[in-house]
Q: What sequence folds into this?
């Protein structure tokens, strides 16, 4: 499966993920990843699914049955020894917020309806944002009945820190 190995290596390099890092993500060693890339070893079905999920590609693409890659590009951030794979969207303005036992990566890109955002009031809150013609609706992720409405005139009172890209609990 030479084509698989070439495509895996290309995806890994484009995403700035080392062989060791990818191995840790899928529960394999660095040498196993090297063997996949040089064609001397093939992944199991379960491992292939994990790799497709990490790089957001189809198995058809990785196996050479599809020539066009329908993928998003990802970038790896390492914070305190933990790797975060985040989608690159042409904007590299990311911030990391550390809570007691978790990290949240936020982007300063404009949130769309349905996106999760972090709001700073007296404390930090996760809210789902919904846009309307007359303002913004912010819905709690813990209680769907907890809804705040901000008219267009009131938006200056709102402090949205950013769009949530990823949250990860550290054990």
A:
């Amino acid at each position: 499966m030479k084509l698989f190995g070439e495509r895996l290596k290309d995806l890994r390099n484009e995403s700035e993920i080392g062989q060791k890092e990818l191995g840790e993500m899928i529960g394999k060693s660095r040498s196993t990843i090297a063997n996949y890339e040089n064609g001397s070893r093939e992944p199991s079905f379960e491992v292939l699914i994990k790799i497709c999920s990490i790089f957001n590609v189809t198995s058809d693409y990785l196996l050479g049955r599809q020539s066009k890659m329908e993928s998003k590009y990802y970038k790896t951030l390492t914070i305190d020894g933990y790797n975060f794979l985040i989608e690159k969207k042409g904007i590299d303005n990311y911030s990391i917020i550390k809570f007691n036992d978790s990290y949240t990566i936020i982007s300063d890109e404009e949130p769309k309806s349905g996106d999760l955002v972090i709001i700073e009031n007296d404390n930090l809150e996760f809210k789902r944002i919904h846009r309307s013609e007359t303002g913004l609706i912010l819905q709690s992720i813990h209680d769907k009945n907890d809804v705040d409405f901000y008219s267009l005139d009131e938006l200056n009172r709102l402090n949205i820190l950013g769009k949530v890209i990823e949250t990860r609990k550290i054990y």
In short: The chain has two domains: 2-71, 90-169.
